[in-house]
């Protein structure tokens, strides 16, 4: 099946990190976010896993001309899965999940980049407001240590956060 749309649950929610058209709020039933540790890189990946009791907020957007090459490159290390029957809109939709062969056991040496988390939270704030940021933290598992790289971001699509946005991120992290 050709998937003209993707469901974003992490950095793709932040529309400042891409220019995919027709982006709109959506939801995905039966999945939750999870931080994954892999040998592919030193930092943790944000992924999803099946979880019947959870519905994720996120965005869907078109992949122009069904050309997935650029998005596949951006989402290197992930595999596409058909979630058409689980998204809020009745259009063929795919989601990216860390490939099974890349999973490794929990490792404190694979921290979460704060610059990456900032981008994700900023996207949820822009799309869903403060409740969106709360939803993100409540529906994400396997939190790892946070590496504060705000002063010198390692995440390639890092964004500048307002003082208010930074305070929301920091407040949620204190509550973990």
Largest sheet: 6 strands, mixed
**CA-to-CA gap between the ends?**
40 Å
Write down how many β-strands occur, each being a DSSP E stretch of 2 or more residues: 8
What are the low-pLDDT stretches, counting only 5+ consecutive residues below 50? none
Order of helices and strands: EEEHEEEHHEEH
Written overview of the protein:
The chain is of the alpha/beta class and 176 residues long. 24% of the residues lie in helices and 30% in strands. It has 4 helices and 8 strands. It has helices at residues 69-74, 114-128, 130-138, 163-175; strands spanning 5-8, 24-36, 45-62, 78-82, 93-98, 112-113, 140-141, 146-147. The strands form 2 sheets. A 6-stranded mixed β-sheet has the order 4-5-1-3-2-7. Strands 6-8 form a two-stranded parallel ribbon. Strand 2 and strand 3 form a beta hairpin. Helix 2 crosses helix 3 (130-138). It is globular and about 40 Å long. The chain starts with a strand and ends with a helix. The mean pLDDT is 91.
Give a topology summary.
Blueprint: E1 5-8, E2 24-36, E3 45-62, H1 69-74, E4 78-82, E5 93-98, E6 112-113, H2 114-128, H3 130-138, E7 140-141, E8 146-147, H4 163-175
Helix pairs in contact: 2-3
Describe this protein with a few key phrases.
single chain; 176 residues; alpha/beta; six-stranded mixed sheet; two-stranded parallel ribbon
Short description:
This protein is α/β, with parallel strands linked by helices and 176 residues long.
């Amino acid at each position: 099946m050709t998937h003209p749309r993707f469901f974003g649950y992490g950095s793709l929610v932040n529309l400042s990190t891409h220019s995919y058209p027709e982006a709109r709020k959506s939801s995905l039933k039966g999945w939750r976010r999870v931080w994954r540790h892999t040998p592919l890189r030193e930092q943790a990946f944000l992924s999803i896993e099946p979880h019947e009791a959870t519905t994720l907020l996120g965005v869907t957007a078109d992949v122009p001309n069904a050309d997935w090459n650029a998005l596949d490159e951006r989402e290197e290390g992930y595999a596409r899965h058909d979630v058409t029957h689980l998204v809020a809109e009745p259009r063929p939709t795919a989601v990216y999940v860390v490939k099974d062969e890349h999973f490794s056991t929990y490792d404190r040496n694979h921290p979460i980049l704060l610059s990456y988390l900032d981008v994700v939270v900023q996207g949820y704030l822009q799309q869903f407001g403060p409740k969106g940021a709360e939803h993100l933290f409540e529906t994400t598992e396997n939190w790892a240590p946070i590496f504060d790289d705000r002063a010198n971001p390692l995440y390639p699509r890092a964004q500048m956060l307002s003082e208010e946005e930074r305070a929301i991120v920091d407040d949620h992290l204190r509550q973990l």
